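Recap slide: DUF2142 domain-containing protein, sequence and predicted structure.
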Amino acid sequence: MDFPEAGMRNDRLKNGILFSLYFLCIVVGEAGLLASICFHYGAGWFTFDTALAVVFLAFAIVLFFMLWGRACRKDQTLFVLVAAPLLVGFALFMMPFAVPDEFTHINRVFDNRSTCPLTTPAQLLDAYTWIGSYDVLGGFMSADFDYSLTKETEYCAASYSTVNYLPPALVVAVGKFFGINGYVLIFAARLSNAALYLVACYWMIGKLPFGRKFAFVFLLNPMLLQQEASCSVDALCNIAIFGFVVQLIAMRFDERSSLPVREWVVLAAFIALVTVCKYAYLPLVLSSVVLYPKIKTRAVRIAVPIAALVLAAGALAFISLRYGTLVAKAAQAICSDSFLGVLGATVFEEGMTVVWQFSGGNLGWPYMNHAGTIVSVYVPVCWIVFLVALGLSVLASFDERIRFKRWERAGLVVLGLLESLLLYIALGEGFSGPGPITWLQGRYFIPPVFLMLFALMLTRKTPFEKIPMKAFAVVMLAINVVSLMFVIRWFW
């Protein structure tokens, strides 16, 4: 007698074992490759590190092709297969401190307090001190590390909650207990954030009722992968707001007459996480108004608007008290005669740069930043290919079940644009004069674009809807591999 459920369990168990082995081979293989690159300057290429890299990467490639057929059965599984080596690659081959402001976040990972000064290992580099090559990195990773030697630093990213750093801080705490080299722990902390993103994306793509091709491509944005595979606070911030948007879309198009309580709890949890992680993205939470018709209980329908007003007033009061100076400068900038001129000049002269950064054209410090060129990794062509792939994924994400009302589509797009404007004001606070703002970073605009593109999903077929998911997987794998090659070549 056949037992289908038992067969399915065995199949899931087998997949779990194979994917775990695949991930292990990737981590060990790419770590060996990093060590081989770092130490080949003095020891040559024929080392244990090189042998380790060759053996484990060969196993990873074999497992990749073994799992390809299985992975294509589910979009989220295919995402894991493709994203895993890319995230590990960005985590290991991007030089420590090269991700924008990462030195500040690394300090928090080693001493997770939101008050300054922080106490960090004395052997960690100071702020704005860069590692220029893998040769130099090898020296840092092979040095004896003494955690009894400490120093204080004012670079502490105090505006962020300790929650943002819990996964990497836990990894570092365990590593410090065993006396592991601090620079090695930076890579381990990055890998913890990368793994968290991988799990979150698996859930998100599986949860979406439509738009999976778009989400698949968008979530493999090279710039986004670089951020998620770092110690940056953006790693958890992005997961929080993306998770909220996905849960919102799933609930909005849930065909059940009454949504289970657990769905509302999940949505509330993501709202709370956004609030804790980065309240700059809180305006996007207003998009949950599209779920108001889903509320069936009269008492709840009355209570929700009141609670929303109370929370909004509390948020405004909190921001005014804690960031009164910033708010005053922003208000002064908006009311100034030069505001529209500066905005227009920025869009006209720096708009393409922001799009370029948004799409992974610059995987190091922002363009024209005072940090110099030592950590600015330029990727000249791939960002254009990514934008083409993203556009095709939107056109290929047709679904007749998409029944946004006109006010919903318009409202979500306007909300995304408003959020982008608020980010522009916050990032350009204190600006003056008619010239453009040149220090905007495209990565900050990734969440509002994610929401707006979902609002613009198509309800009618296009010729591109026949493009299979595996085609997008191959294209995004190629784009990110080339981007990683530029990173490795830059720090060689």
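The longest strand covers residues 118-121.
The chain has a mean pLDDT of 87.
(End of recap.)
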